Structure formats: structure tokens, C-alpha cells
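Many introductory courses stop at the sequence. We go one step further.
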Amino acid sequence: MRISILLFALLLSASAALAQGPYPPDGRLQADRAEREAEKNLPPPIHQQPSVDFARVKNDADELLILSQSIHSGIDDVGKGMLPKDLINQLKRMEKLSKRLRSELAP
């Protein structure tokens, strides 16, 4: 009889401890649920592409074309054993122009 009372008291205290448990209060659960629902309803952010200065892009592309033609003839001279003195500078300028065009036009 004594063991059954002790066992009953132990079960009663264990059930009271489990009733409180690790669960958050109901208000917290509702707030978390409402926050998740609000996040689902938000539209994704719109990324605005900066406006492109088409006149500048056109001028850069024209300059790139002229440089590529002059580099092409300079490479022919290299094949003949002559290195034009401005060929390296033209190649650097071409690289800068192409990077700037890429950054202007790439999303």
C-alpha cells in the first residue's frame, strides 16, 4: 500500500512537470505563425537596374572597334618582327573599355 501511494505521488508530480513542458505559451506560437504567414505574403524585392547612358556606351563601343582594328594591324607588324610602341597601351585601354561596357550592360 505504501509503495502504491509513493508510486501515485511520483506519477502525479511527473505529469505536472510534463504539463508545463518545453512548449512556449500559446501567444508565442500564434505570433510565430502570424510572422511566417506575413513573410509568405510579401512580394520579393524589386532590383532596379541603374539607367544606362547609351551615348557613353555607344562611344565606348566605337572606340573599342577602332582600337581592335589598330591592334589587328599592330599584330601583323609583330609577325614581321616589329613591336609597335603603343600596342601595349592600346591593349590596356581596350581592356578598360571592355570592363566598363560589361559593368554598364550586365545586370
